[in-house]
Design goal:
The structure holds 2 protein chains of 2 kinds.
Chain A (H helix, E strand, L loop, with lengths): L5 H5 L8 E6 H12 L3 E4 L6 H10 L6 E4 L3 H13 L4 E5 L1 H16 L4 E9 L5 E5 L4 H6 L8 E3 L4 H18 L2 E7 H5 L1 E6 L44 E3 L14 H16 L2 H4 L2 E4 L6 E5 L3 H14 L4 E6 L1 E3 L3 H10 L2 E6 L5 H9 L4 E5 L8 H12 L1
Parallel strand pairs in A: 2-3, 2-4, 4-5, 5-8, 7-8, 12-13, 12-15, 15-16
Antiparallel strand pairs in A: 1-9, 5-6, 7-14, 11-13
Helix pairs in contact in A: 2-3, 2-7, 4-5, 11-14, 12-13
Chain B lengths: L26 H15 L6 E5 L14 E4 L5 H11 L4 E7 H7 L1 H10 L4 E6 L34 H7 L4 E6 L3 H13 L4 E6 L3 H7 L5 H11 E3 L15 E8 L5 H27 L1
Classes of the chains: A alpha/beta, B alpha/beta.
Chain lengths: ~400, ~290
């Protein structure tokens, strides 16, 4: 943070609230962002993500950070990019309708390789839909919502603890790959209260963006990638006098609007920096899969009932297991394919009309996939998933 | 013969020249006045960030030898908000067009002015969408011909200085590209103001707006500016609509008001003091 006031520099206050605490998912997300080093939040009130903004409005001024309520989500996303380019880790939080408005500048963040985090506490859609009810309907929008070709990273927490942990991870991934990272939560996870263990500062792994190794000079090329395909990031005010644009650009950041070569080179690198690093990015959790004959593939809130269903199935002698996707994008295709190769069938519960299930089907190839849709107030019941497991076993 | 450097060369990215602007365009004049203002104030270029949106003047950020960012259409002020609040040491200047700032970006303009965000906004008003080939916009005069007003414009126009004043800007001025000295002085003043300042520069687009409206050269357009403009300081901005016969130029607003940045700093200090008191109380109770 370049603009530390004298008062706060002298008296550092504890930023990470280490220890066992009881809090909601939205608050855990806010605390996770602060622990990761977020010091700028721009947002717009929206159910069921408002509590994140409210918590940031209270906490950030205490730790020399900035909270600002913008005029809309378009502006919020633009301000988040601006703050990141000024060298400060930044975040916004929203839900479906706001996520739609952010898509324009999410594209700008992708094109200008801006590290930042966007939390979407998903509710029922389309349009205004059901503001206070859960949903997992924005999964494909997260992947494809902005125009053009790109790759992004999206994480799906399924507990309050993961709202903290995955928000920290989201910042670390954003800083590592210079990409906007989504935390795709849902109304239940956001509003649920659970016990959270916040680690001690020393045991938190925090990643900061790569800085340029050259001193400011005329030759500095702000978009010249290293071997990992990620360019080191200069920020405003350091003397680099660099340019960034949403137009297709070359390594110097200069517009190249009529060169097929520049377009190919840039867009392919933006995709490849995620694709080629996907083994380092993707994380899944497995339970009871070793000898499973039926696998449930789930994420977010649906994964909780799925785990319960798998345990119930095991209790009655049915060999079921769970593959829980912490990373949704890039899609854990290989992990799903491996599981698919070993089981007779896969069950996919989702709070939508079928989004990730298509990815699962693609990865599962010949293995039959059964989809369990759920819309509205309640998440899947373990019994419903159990019935599906028992149904496909035969 | 020895090549003499241009006096404002250091303000430009030389490797980006020639620029993309048409012959006779007013954007170069605006850039020149901006460079002159930075030079005369001796501002540290390492601490200047030029932010622009989409459109002809939007390309200006690519030409200034400072840190610069070319945002999505209409969003430079929202982007600048993040930059300025994240690092208040930076001088953040938004230079963009009438369509970018007042059509697609209108909401961001009015709210940044209301907040009194510490940024300077310079608007090149050429009455038309130049980059896309000459469509009508929020400042296109009544009856003017554009590609999307082929029977003459029937939309009322924004009076930008009135809008800026009504939204709370601490400094508002309007000049044409003919008033280069005044404009430079205004930019200098704006750069030194605390809070949200706005300068409208009525600029010629002979290639498109001029050609469609019987002023097909820069000279003819500037002739119009010369004949129609009237310098009137601190006149009522509500009465300063641009008409074919009158372009009121000058300063309209110059007031003092705490900026968002100042109030934010003060709030943080208060929060810190309160925290400290609470800690002391806790210590006392423990003791």
């Amino acid at each position: 943070m370049p603009a530390t006031t004298a008062a706060s520099a002298e008296k550092p206050r504890p930023i990470v609230r280490s220890g066992r605490r009881f809090m909601s998912g939205d608050i855990a997300c806010a605390e996770g962002s602060l622990a990761a080093g977020c010091r700028f939040f721009a947002g717009y009130p929206i159910t069921p993500a408002t509590e994140i903004a409210e918590h940031m409005a209270r906490r950030l001024p205490e730790i020399d950070g900035v909270y600002i309520q913008m005029e809309d989500e378009i502006a919020s996303m633009a301000a988040v990019i601006g703050a990141s380019y000024a060298g400060v880790k930044s975040m916004t939080a929203t839900s479906g309708p706001g996520f739609s408005l952010m898509q324009e500048n999410i594209g700008l963040a992708l094109m200008t390789e801006t590290p930042c985090v966007i939390v979407n506490v998903m509710r029922g859609g389309p349009s205004t839909g059901q503001p206070t009810m859960p949903g997992q309907q924005d999964v494909m929008q997260a992947r494809w919502g902005s125009h053009g070709d790109y790759e992004i990273i999206a994480l799906a927490p399924s507990s309050v603890q993961e709202m903290f942990d995955l928000t920290v991870d989201a910042f670390n991934l954003a800083e590592t790959y210079r990409v906007p990272v989504f935390v795709l939560a849902d109304e239940i996870v956001g509003h649920m209260w659970e016990r959270v263990t916040i680690p001690e500062v020393e045991s938190l792994k925090i990643v900061n963006r790569k800085k340029p190794t050259v001193r400011p000079n005329n030759r500095f090329a702000p978009f010249e990638p290293d071997e990992d395909l990620v360019p080191p990031m200069a920020v405003f005010g350091e003397g680099y006098h660099f340019h960034a644009t949403g137009l297709t650009h070359d390594e110097r950041g200069y517009p190249r609007t009529e060169s097929a070569e520049a377009q190919t080179k840039l867009v392919q690198r933006l995709c490849n920096k995620i694709r080629k690093n996907k083994d380092r990015i993707i994380r899944v959790k497995i339970a009871m899969l070793e000898d499973a004959e039926v696998a449930v593939v789930a994420y977010g809130i649906a994964a909780r009932a799925a785990l319960s269903a798998v345990r119930k199935a095991r209790a009655t002698g049915t060999k079921a297991g769970l593959l829980r996707l912490e990373t949704i994008w890039p899609f854990p295709e290989e992990q799903v394919a491996q599981v698919a190769g070993r089981v007779k069938a896969i069950v996919v519960p989702e709070m939508n009309c079928g989004q990730i299930v298509r990815e699962v089907e693609r990865a599962a190839k010949e293995t039959p996939v059964v989809f369990l849709s759920k819309l509205g107030e309640e998440p899947h019941k373990p019994g419903e998933i159990l019935d599906a497991i028992e149904g496909v076993k035969r | 013969m020895e090549e003499l450097p241009h006096p404002y060369e250091k303000f430009l990215r030389k490797d980006r020249i020639p620029h993309i602007w048409c012959e006779g365009c007013g954007n170069g004049i605006i850039l020149n006045c901006f460079a002159r203002a930075l030079d005369e104030l001796n501002i540290d270029l390492n601490k200047v960030v030029v932010v622009s949106g989409i459109g002809c003047i939007g390309r200006v950020s690519g030409y200034t030898n400072t840190d610069s960012f070319h945002t999505t259409h209409g969003r430079p002020i929202a982007f600048a908000t993040g930059v300025k609040l994240a690092n208040p040491e930076l001088k953040v200047v938004v230079i963009s067009g009438d369509g970018d700032l007042f059509a697609i970006g209108g909401n961001h303009f009015i709210h940044a002015a209301r907040r009194n965000l510490d940024i300077q906004v310079i608007c090149a008003n050429n009455f038309i969408y130049g980059m896309t080939g000459g469509q009508g916009g929020p400042t296109t005069p009544l009856e003017a011909w554009t590609t999307t007003t082929p029977y003459g414009n029937i939309e009322q126009t924004f009076n930008l200085v009135h809008l800026a004043a009504a939204c709370g800007s601490v400094y508002v001025a309007r000049w044409t590209t003919l008033h280069t000295r005044w404009l430079t002085e205004s930019i200098k003043k704006a750069l030194q103001k605390e809070g949200f300042s706005f300068i409208e520069v009525v600029s010629q687009c002979p290639e498109i707006f001029g050609r469609y409206n019987k002023m097909e050269t820069a000279i003819k357009m500037m002739q119009w500016f010369k004949e129609a403009s009237e310098v009137q300081h601190f006149s009522d901005p509500a009465k300063a609509e641009i008409t074919p016969n009158r372009i009121t130029v000058g300063e309209f607003v110059d007031i003092e008001k705490p900026s968002y940045g100042r109030l934010l700093r003060e709030m943080k200090t208060k929060v810190a003091e309160k925290k400290e008191q609470n800690e002391e109380k806790k210590d006392a109770n423990r003791g």
